[in-house]
Amino acid sequence: MFLPLGDSPNPPGRAWVNTGLIALNVAVYLLVSLPLAHSAPDLTSPWLHEYLHALGVRTPAQLQLVLSHLSAYEALVYQYGFKPADPSLLTLLTSLFLHGGLLHLAGNMLFLWIFGDNVEYRLGALRYLLVYLLCGVAATLFFALFTPASRIPLVGASGAISGVLGCYFLWFRRNRVKTFVFLFPFFMQSLFLPARLVLGFYLVVDNLLPFLFAGSSAGGVAHGAHIGGFIAGLAIAAATDRLPGLARRQHYRHEARQTAQQQDSAAPADPAALLALLQQQRFDKAAALYFRLSRQQRQGLPAAALLALAGFLHQQRDADACLSLLRRFIAERPSDALLPQAFMLAGQTLLLKKNCDFSAYQYYLAAADLARDPLLAEQARQALRLLEQRCRRGTV
């Protein structure tokens, strides 16, 4: 068993939306769930009658047996939990704030407390709230795809929290998570593990394998919702990173088309033309041409030429276009000798964007790890120390 206890580094200040979500979930449990769990149900409630019917209660003896163990909270869960066979917009939201018990609540809030603050800092408060709710809805609907006829209510914040974990997985891959590893009786110890290892274990071992071999809700755990939320978080994080760059690339392509129409002939989309433009220091036109090249054509370009173009875009403070180029470079050239320089420049470029300091931290870490040049490695470590100092002062 892997139990996360904390993560590092953490953003400065307080994540107000994340804290508010934790407080709201706890308040609902203490003020609603807990009192109703020790109260008898309202025998005149139509929801109770529908719930009893869904349970298959048909005889007076069955009714007496079920009512002797039934609480008012179970009837409330049936009313406000999400039932795939009877979906509603209201229950899509209310189900996110109900929990099946104290352990269910505690586990969810622990994950939200550890991982939510970084994601909120990256997105900003209002966007974080929207992403949290969207991931919760996506997780619930994904679960419903596999149990469309079920009238068993789905409750819990774990689908929305899994979406937060999906964002964290993509954005903070080099963070370290303090984890209690419990493999009784062989190994019981707290370790600092890479974030992607911990979250990958959560996704694959805790959810994907049970989902594939035992079903969407094996053991009373909505594995399907966890997987759906995680996928939604990954998709949102990827779109947040890439859509601004995509818009900028379309701008460059539009400029290239306009130039071609004015000249009645388009510049040939090949590496040689791009290199010629770079040698002439016509960087704007080189950028327009670069974003028209295929992956195969980009592979033939010298790494130094690509980094020179990225450097120009950085100087122009065109962060989205620069990051788009650098992310392609990193993905397409994983063993290139200039990869540390690409990571370093990506970190510097992320600092041009709002609330991307901790994403920049990840790139600086990669540059420091991979750099063979002592000077570059020291520059990366200095950048890391500066970010850590700013974080401690609360000025990041």
UniProtKB/TrEMBL annotation:
GO terms for biological process: proteolysis. One of its GO terms (molecular function) is serine-type endopeptidase activity. It is found in: Membrane. The chain crosses the membrane at residues 15-37, 96-116, 128-146, 152-172, 179-205, 211-239. The keyword Membrane applies. GO terms for cellular component: membrane. It is a multi-pass membrane protein. Keywords: Hydrolase, Membrane, Protease, Transmembrane, Transmembrane helix. Residues 89-238 form the Peptidase S54 rhomboid domain. It comes from the Bacteria. Belongs to the peptidase S54 family. This is Membrane associated serine protease, rhomboid family. It comes from Desulfuromonas thiophila. The lineage of its organism: Bacteria, Pseudomonadati, Thermodesulfobacteriota, Desulfuromonadia, Desulfuromonadales.
